[in-house]
């Protein structure tokens, strides 16, 4: 175990860089402390690379190579989602280390999402600078500070790079991981490299009425009208289909699948429709691969238990499948609800990202680093990222944008993201450093 690297990681995990949807609830002090700690822990990097603050707390570093064109951009974000401490087995910002050997595990908010990648990148760069190594072409480190709230840090970095005429050859952000058993019929370890990500939007649903005392309710009060609208949405999900990144994933994994999955994956021209209809039965992740999903995440009604709500509201979080759009999803919701007295408004939304190629130089570099650092038996495959990331902003200046975190994650470890007991195994994290080192050497 590289004890020094692990202790640096734990120190940074202890800084509660929590981002909130309400800017007034955010505390700037931890972000300033995080930057100060980076300068102390990584002195060689800060001596060699040119660093600047972008926006409020986003960080951009430039590592000058032998040539400035076609640079590599390594992305991560330092902010984390809020916690409910009582739900955690270990305090979420203590970075508790448990176990020994292969079972050694760090428990902390941000251990995977996304300080795991951020600190692994820093460790790789610090080591290479210490060796006197210099990249063939420029390398940028782009660290956002408000990714978890779809904020302004990453867009500001992209705007700055565009103004300076920077056109990256390759951008790599957080995303899929090294997993096994995530694709039906495939037992091999797979490196799920996101070539695209779904769009994200929120619809607001509002029902209104005159109000009054709860002892004399009308036939269809605002809360009941809203509940009916939500039920109709639930009973009319978006249609299923196989989009190009998902088709590419199944074709790539077909040789490693057991029967009958192998035959199904090899003959998608015939079996694609059936596969799309069956995949939702395998769980939430495979359902999200084949359809635009919608779920109600917030509800509000009256202020008192004996008062009729004059306004009942719901927030619907929608994740758009490749090829879908904010406009289409809004109209689909309007048709499903079929109630002109339900007000529907788009609070915010962005369409799905463009699809990056799963062939060519950029893809080859990532796949090569997967093999050298994580194992030649790991199968790199294109993947449709289900969540949104800061990388979507970089598609405006780069055609080769990928989403991959070089960590072996179990299903329970993936489930802990944005939930309690987030954690990462030490040996898994250390191997991730090796991936970034190898990828940088290929730049």
From TrEMBL:
UniProt family annotation: Belongs to the peptidase M20A family.
PANTHER family registered for this protein in UniProt: N-FATTY-ACYL-AMINO ACID SYNTHASE/HYDROLASE PM20D1, N-FATTY-ACYL-AMINO ACID SYNTHASE_HYDROLASE PM20D1
Domain Peptidase M20 dimerisation: 195-341
Main EC class the enzyme belongs to: hydrolase
Keyword Nucleus recorded: no
Superkingdom classification of source: Bacteria
EC number in record: 3.4.17.-
Keywords: Carboxypeptidase, Hydrolase, Metal-binding, Protease, Zinc
Protein name, per record: Carboxypeptidase PM20D1
Pfam families recorded: M20_dimer (PF07687), Peptidase_M20 (PF01546)
InterPro entries the record matches: Bact_exopeptidase_dim_dom (IPR036264), Pept_M20A (IPR047177), Peptidase_M20 (IPR002933), Peptidase_M20_dimer (IPR011650)
Gene3D superfamilies: 1.10.150.900, 3.30.70.360, Zn peptidases
MF terms in GO: carboxypeptidase activity
